[in-house]
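== Polypeptide entry ==
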Amino acid sequence: MTHQEVIHQLHGLVRRLRWLNVLQLIPDTLVIYGILQLAFSGQIVTLFEASFSRNQAVLVTVLFALIDLCVTGIRYNDRIAGKRLISQLSGRLTTPEAELIKKFERFK
C-alpha cells in the first residue's frame, strides 16, 4: 500500500471507531437496564413494556450482553487493524497525518 492509501484507510478507520463508540452506548445501556430490571423485579419482569418470566428476562439480558460483546470485538479488531496501518507508515508525517494518528490513539 502506498502512503496515501494507508492514510486514507486510517481515516476511514477513525471515522468507523467514532461511530462504534456511539453505537457501543446502546448495548451497554440495554445490559444495565436489563440487570436493574432483574434486580428490582419479582417473578414477572417488565422490559420495554413487555412482561417476561424471570428466566426469559435473564435470557434477554444475556442476549443484550452478547450484542455488547460483539460490538466490543469489532472495536478491538479495528484497533488492531489501525495499529498495523500505523506500523506501515514511514518517513516524516505531515501535521494532519500526525493529528490523525493522535485521533486514532484516543480510541484505545
Summary: The longest strand covers residues 44-47.
